[in-house]
Amino acid sequence: GGPCKQQCRDTGDKVVCSCFVGYQLLADGVSCEDINECIMGSHNCRLGESCINTVGSFRCQRDSSCGTGYELTEDNSCKDIDECESGIHNCLPDFICQNTLGSFRCRPKLQCKSGFIQDALGNCIDINECLSISAPCPVGQTCINTEGSYACQKNVPNCGRGYHLNEEGTRCVDVDECSPPSEPCGTGHRCVNSPGSFRCECKPGYYFDGISRTCVDINECQRYPGRLCGHKCENTPGSYHCSCSVGFRLSVDSRSCEDVNECSSSPCSQECANVYGSYQCYCRRGYQLSDVDGVTCEDIDECALPTGGHICSYRCINIPGSFQCTCPSSGYRLAPNGRNCQDIDECVTGIHNCSINETCFNIQGGFRCLAFECPENYRRSADT
């Protein structure tokens, strides 16, 4: 009920009005108004906080949130949320919740033995001590991981190809691949040992194969096709051999081929003609080549040919290589052309047997003896 709006103090002589914290006295000396600390700069907000004026005071508000796992307190600071105490964790019954800053961890109730580590599901997984930063084994030994532990094994020198450990097992020495009874290059080839390897000195006609490390035959026929032999090339171990097609023989140079004169060995029954790489049989007139062997000459039966009936006028007789025409046994003789038959005039030639009183009369193939007598009271005036 006094004259002052907020605080009143009676000094005895007069009444003095004052204001609460966060307020200031107006010019009338009675009323109070709020002080805006944010504008006046009298606030104590830290970097990253904004000043918000309130009636009689102010508050500081963070420009960014606290993030997951934290909560904002009244004094505008971030406080870790204890998920385990508040019960907002998601740990399974077999796990124990352990709070961490900004989060929490679920630890299995069952603890793993030494040498194992637990995963998120509580399973015990072996620790590979050999992969740790500090090598567990001393120099010269190899670490071998075991179940729940590890073992150290003494290093054995790893010898490369062409070397092997000495009897003490301390260093690598050269392997003598050429020592008997081994023959790495093959029979007949010379082996020369060298550090960690060997080489082969191959015979002519062979080459050294670096992969199989042996002497391999050179196939001259494939390497030089058509350049070694005239006809056929056949590879042989260490060399090659030339051969010729049928009808040819190898020349003196053992590479070229020359024609064989087959006619010199008389392969045909009659006539032979040599051709390049072969020969041809042919027959004399009146013979023909056999269809069976192409070598033998068979007689042609001219009388049996379709035109055989027209060769001779009377009868045809076949003879080797030719034919003969014949005529009837009497009354005819063979014409000069050897085919036709001519009548023999027995009356002219005088080979008839007519008597003096008979007249000879020639007929085809013979003759007739005609007796010519005149009737009574007539006499002959001439022969007829």
UniProtKB/TrEMBL annotation:
Signal peptide (UniProt feature, chain positions): none
Major localization listed first in the record, in broad terms: secreted
Database matches in CDD domains: EGF_CA (cd00054)
Lineage top rank: taxon: Eukaryota
Keyword DNA repair attributed: no
Subcellular location: Secreted, Extracellular space, Extracellular matrix
Keywords per UniProt: Disulfide bond, EGF-like domain, Extracellular matrix, Repeat, Secreted, Signal
Family classification: Belongs to the fibulin family.
Protein name, UniProt field: Fibulin-1
Recorded name of the encoding gene: LOC103582580
